[in-house]
Design goal:
Blueprint (H helix, E strand, L loop, with lengths): L4 E12 L2 E7 L15 E6 L3 E6 L10 E7 L3 H6 L7 E4 L17 E6 L3 H13 L7 E7 L11 H6 L2 E7 L10 E2 L15 E5 L2 H13 L7 E3 L2
Parallel strand pairs: 7-8, 7-11, 8-9, 9-10, 11-12
Antiparallel strand pairs: 1-2, 1-6, 2-5, 3-4, 3-6
Length: 230
């Protein structure tokens, strides 16, 4: 277990319908400074439950002692993690995965696509962009959820928009909620053809990812300009 490190639950907060935010304190561990690229994920474990991978929702910062995650309920480990109290211990490994190639997006337009809990690694991208907004061109987030209550980070959306990030939200199952916004899937709201030097970052259900890739290719975006975080 030498590659596992004990981290401490700092907060467990409701994030949206079926989603919970978990904040881990990694202070005093070798994990500080190991999150280097937005979109990377971490293996978390509880000895009595098991282990699984979770994308880091907070931006990479060399001296940050907090990692934020978005947990989707319905499986044993996330369900156990969200029941923990502050101060509880969670075993964590170093971040894995190549993440999103954010340096390639500098000076270019960027399209971001996320559905459900897939917003967590995209949030890491957005918060990184906000730290030096002038280094990027137009940034548009296409954000889909099943119901209006299922959008995580809703209170942060106005901060993103204030930073010049266009947010396009759509609901696939509005029902009788009174939702007045867009409906359907994110790939149906792409709109105009992307500029030639545009990049796209995607995270969400595999069906959405494949359909967005196909739609972007149809609009003329080359496959090498479309990136997943794994």
């Amino acid at each position: 277990m030498n590659d596992w490190h004990p981290t401490t639950v700092a907060a467990v907060l409701p994030a949206a319908e079926g989603l919970t935010e978990l904040v881990l304190d990694i202070g005093g561990t070798p994990l500080v400074g190991t999150h280097r690229t937005p979109g990377q994920y971490v293996r978390l474990a509880l000895p009595e439950v098991g282990e699984s991978m979770f994308a880091i929702a907070s931006p990479p910062e060399p001296f940050s002692t907090r990692w934020e995650f978005l947990l989707k309920g319905g499986s044993p480990l996330p369900d156990a993690l969200v029941r923990l109290e502050p101060g509880a211990k969670v075993h964590s490994k170093r971040p894995e995965g190549r993440g999103f190639p954010l340096p390639q997006a500098r000076g270019r337009d960027l399209l971001l696509f996320a559905t459900g809990s897939g917003i967590s690694p995209i949030r890491s991208v957005i918060e990184s962009i906000r730290q030096e907004r002038g280094s990027y061109g137009q940034v548009t987030l296409y954000f889909g959820a099943r119901t209006p209550q299922a959008f995580a980070y809703e209170k942060e959306l106005h901060h993103w928009e204030a930073a010049g990030i266009r947010v396009v939200r759509t609901v696939s199952q509005p029902g009788a909620s009174g939702w007045q916004g867009l409906t359907g899937y994110v790939q149906t709201h792409l709109g105009e053809q992307p500029a030639a030097d545009t990049l796209a970052f995607l995270c969400g259900q595999s069906g959405m990812v494949q359909e967005v890739i196909e739609a972007l290719r149809t609009l003329g975006l080359p496959r090498e300009a479309i990136h997943l975080n794994y």
